[in-house]
């Protein structure tokens, strides 16, 4: 939220020498984080000038410039820069005539950019300054011509300081507003917070229109709410106020002070009527929408969208509506997305004379879902989804009427309506010692009562403490805990002592926590970088990576997704890693080794998950039965590890060729991970629909009851990698970390160092080409017996000397006995045992 300081000063007493930094410091004390300071960045002599002469001069490039004589100071007086009162200035615009008063930037001035102004020779003249446009002054985007002051209703004296005239000397502070404090999205709310922080006198801007509310009760305009599908039982619209102003001149300019304040607040000036609605929204926090009354058909009905219904919004986009969308409609159909954006059919234009003003209050959840569904965030939806004061709607409508009458020449009409079905805030019981017990600071009863009254609450004493009714603009105050937090915030967090709690002995981290940390350390040690990605995926991403087979993967669909294109919780870690890799590759980082540890969500087929009971309140510990019901409504969430490598593991350099990364590096990371937690992972031939069919491994852990699958590794299909804008070779792996830790050794196994010499032999076996080398290696280890210390695959040959359909696998074998030196005969006998078993299982033969 950006807050122009001059605007803030209208509703809270500011010191004469206050700075933006002072205001930021005051707001930080009450929990509003500072963001930035915004200024127009116009300095130096910028004055009002009057065009005395304008001589058109065609140029060789086809352009015509005006050589102007401009008076920049009263006759006979020095100008603001100390120079002559009449200046020669070259101007390329043609939207002015002799006698017009304009804004002249004299030498020494600096415009936004920064763009310093100096006398310079151009088009055969020395231009002693510049006549400025709205865009050059930072007030808007209009650069078609210069700013003629009469066009915005101004007729100042020549030589007047234009910076002050156009309010370019104002500045705005920006603060970050958290989702629970929607009231701070207004000058009214920020002024109240500044008052809480400093004790400065606060004047509620609603008081400006209090008399107007009693003088003109709107009546007679039809407004109905037909919400047959409320979200979570809450009707989408609780307040709807309309007022009418007739006979406005929509072509009148917006006052410069309003343009400047809107610009500093981050909103561009559009037209007088629209600017007034935006101004009131910023002032009071109540979004306002204006309709061209003559384009409306009948009264207004607030309802949900019908299947297949469409609406052309103010941005000229045709939007297909969802049955959950809340609409503003008239006799012709939909004319606006409630609380998000109006429709083009009833838009206020330069020809509008009669205006219907809408000031309503909508359900935050409904508005938030609609804005995200249509990817249509707006200033209005940003406020509604955080909660708008339902009691301010009538005052906001009256304030718009007041400004339209004053600046657009309109006449307030009696036609209007007030629909108010909002529920007043419920009283909250606050025990006398609750704040002290919860915060850990002694607060007197007077402090608690005075602080809550200062924020607008109604506080009544009871025998047990207080009965507190929150103000309508604070929907976040819902229980005693939130009231206690408010007392701590307003009184000052510096009252809370900094005490380091002493941890009870014997409560260190669990075995699983310790092993998870070791796993992350091991992956980092092999050169991988840990990343974090969003757990929200599309259905296609889940189906592609969530299962090795072609079957669709059951996934948890979010009821209120942040992105409608990613409404599912992830079933695999790989899509998130791929997104991170794509982002880094697009920024020139080509050599990547990434890993992520996180939860995946794997619902069981045919099981419906959801809350089996109402969510318990935070004030009491839920029972075991309640916790059991809640846990039963949650799908299995195992913790997985994902790994992705691409590019080169070793970069090309003098004397060293580049070493490309691939599936071997992903497998190395898996083995390091397993070793760090005391587990052994065995690799067997595998298949996965997203991976290269000949370069895919299934990862298993051997247990007394058999091999347990715990993940997979492989190389992305080249076609899939190309579709995802990745290099051709991308190695990936995914491991169920929970399953791996379950089968990890719980004790340290130490192998003694054997001092006896080893006997080494090579073994080349010819087997069918479809026999996995890993299975042959496992068979050799089994057949060779306990004398075999190590066996490694060193060659896979297919070619001359080996029959078609067969391959030759060469293994390096190392034999050793712990108590004696082996003879060659003993080593050969053990090797022959391996050959015999391989021949039995695979028909293997020794290669000559």
Structure description:
- The protein is α+β, with helices and mostly antiparallel strands.
- It has six domains: 2-40 and 171-203, Phenylalanyl-tRNA Synthetase, Chain B, domain 1; 46-165, Beta Barrel (OB fold (Dihydrolipoamide Acetyltransferase, E2P)); 209-420, Phenylalanyl-trna Synthetase, Chain B, domain 3 (Phenylalanyl-tRNA Synthetase, Chain B, domain 3), CATH 3.50.40; 428-494, Phenylalanyl-tRNA Synthetase, Chain B, domain 1, CATH 3.30.56; 512-607 and 629-742, BirA Bifunctional Protein, domain 2; 759-846, Alpha-Beta Plaits (2-Layer Sandwich), CATH 3.30.70.380.
- It contains 22 helices and 42 strands.
- Strand 36 and strand 37 (706-716) form a beta hairpin.
- Helix 21 packs across helix 22 (824-842).
- It starts with a strand and ends with a strand.
- The model has no long low-confidence stretch (mean pLDDT 91).
């Amino acid at each position: 939220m950006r807050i122009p300081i001059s605007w803030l000063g209208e509703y809270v007493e500011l010191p004469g020498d206050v700075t933006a930094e002072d205001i930021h410091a005051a707001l930080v004390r009450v929990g509003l984080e500072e963001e930035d300071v915004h200024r127009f960045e116009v300095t130096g002599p910028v004055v009002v000038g009057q065009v005395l002469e304008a001589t058109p001069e065609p140029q060789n490039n086809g352009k015509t410039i005006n050589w102007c004589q401009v008076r920049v100071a009263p006759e006979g007086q020095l100008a603001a820069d100390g120079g002559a009162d009449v200046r020669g200035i070259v101007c390329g615009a043609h939207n002015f005539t002799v006698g017009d008063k304009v804004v002249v930037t004299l030498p020494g001035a600096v415009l936004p950019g920064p763009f310093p102004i100096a006398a310079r020779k151009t088009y055969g003249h020395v231009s002693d300054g510049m006549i400025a446009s709205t865009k050059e002054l930072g007030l808007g985007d209009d650069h078609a011509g210069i700013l003629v002051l009469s066009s915005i209703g101004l007729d100042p004296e020549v030589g007047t300081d234009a910076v002050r005239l156009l309010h370019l000397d104002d500045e705005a502070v920006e603060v970050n507003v958290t989702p629970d404090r929607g009231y701070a999205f207004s000058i009214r709310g920020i002024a109240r917070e500044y008052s809480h922080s400093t004790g400065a006198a606060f004047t509620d801007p609603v008081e400006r229109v209090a008399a107007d509310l009693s003088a003109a009760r709107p009546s007679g305009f039809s407004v109905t709410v037909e919400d047959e599908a409320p979200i979570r039982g809450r009707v989408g619209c609780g307040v709807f106020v309309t007022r009418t102003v007739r006979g406005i001149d929509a072509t009148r300019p917006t006052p410069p002070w309003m343009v400047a304040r809107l610009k500093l607040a981050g909103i561009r000036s559009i037209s007088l009527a629209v600017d007034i609605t935006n101004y009131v929204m910023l002032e009071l926090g109540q979004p306002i929408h204006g309709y061209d009354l003559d384009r409306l058909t009948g009264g207004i009905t607030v309802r949900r969208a019908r299947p297949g219904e469409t609406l052309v919004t103010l941005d000229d986009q045709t939007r297909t509506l969802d049955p959950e969308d809340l609409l503003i409609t008239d006799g012709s159909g939909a004319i606006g997305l409630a609380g998000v954006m109006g429709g083009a059919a009833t838009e206020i234009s330069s020809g509008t004379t009669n205006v219907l003003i809408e000031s309503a209050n909508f359900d935050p959840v409904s508005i938030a879902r609609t804005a995200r569904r249509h990817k249509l965030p707006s200033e209005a939806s940003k406020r509604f989804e955080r909660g708008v004061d339902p009691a301010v709607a009538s005052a906001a409508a009256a304030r718009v009427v007041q400004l339209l009458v004053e600046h657009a020449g309109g006449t307030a009409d009696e036609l209007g309506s007030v629909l108010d079905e909002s529920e007043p805030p419920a009283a909250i019981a606050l025990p006398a010692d609750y704040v002290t017990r919860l915060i850990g600071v002694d607060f007197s009863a007077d402090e608690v009562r005075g602080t809550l009254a200062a924020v607008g609450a109604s506080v009544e004493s009871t025998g047990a403490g207080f009965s507190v009714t929150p103000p309508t603009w604070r929907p976040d105050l819902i229980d005693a805990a939130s009231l206690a937090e408010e007392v701590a915030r307003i009184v000052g967090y510096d009252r809370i002592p900094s005490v380091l709690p002493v941890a009870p002995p014997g409560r260190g981290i669990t075995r699983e926590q310790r092993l998870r940390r070791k796993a992350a350390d091991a992956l980092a040690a092999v050169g991988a970088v840990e990343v974090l990605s969003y757990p929200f995926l599309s259905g296609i991403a889940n189906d592609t990576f969530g299962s090795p087979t072609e079957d669709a993967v059951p996934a948890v669909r979010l009821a209120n997704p942040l992105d409608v294109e990613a409404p599912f919780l992830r079933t695999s870690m790989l899509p998130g890693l791929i997104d991170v890799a794509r982002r880094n590759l697009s920024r020139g980082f080509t050599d990547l080794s990434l890993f992520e540890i996180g939860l995946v969500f794997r619902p069981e087929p045919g099981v419906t998950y959801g809350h089996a009971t109402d969510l318990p309140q935070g004030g009491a510990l839920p029972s075991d039965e309640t916790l059991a019901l809640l846990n039963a409504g949650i799908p299995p969430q195992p913790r997985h590890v994902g790994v992705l490598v691409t590019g080169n593991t070793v970069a090309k350099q003098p004397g060293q060729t580049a070493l490309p990364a691939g599936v071997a590096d992903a497998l190395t990371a898996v083995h390091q991970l397993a070793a760090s937690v005391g587990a052994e992972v065995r690799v067997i031939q595998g298949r996965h629909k997203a991976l290269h069919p000949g370069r895919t491994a299934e990862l298993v852990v051997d247990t007394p009851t058999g091999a347990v699958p715990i993940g997979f590794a492989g190389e992305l299909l080249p076609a899939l990698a190309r579709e995802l804008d990745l290099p051709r070779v991308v190695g990936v792996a995914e491991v169920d970390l929970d399953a791996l830790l379950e089968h990890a050794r719980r004790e340290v196994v130490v192998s003694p160092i054997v001092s006896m010499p080893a006997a080494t032999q090579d073994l080349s076996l010819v087997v069918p080409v479809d026999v996995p080398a890993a299975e042959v290696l496992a068979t050799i280890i089994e057949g060779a017996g306990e004398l075999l210390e190590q066996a490694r695959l060193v060659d896979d040959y297919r070619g001359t000397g080996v029959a078609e359909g067969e391959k030759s696998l060469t293994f390096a074998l190392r034999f050793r006995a712990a108590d004696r030196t082996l003879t060659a005969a003993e080593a050969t006998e053990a090797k022959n045992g391996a050959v015999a078993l391989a021949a039995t299982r695979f028909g293997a033969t020794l290669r000559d």
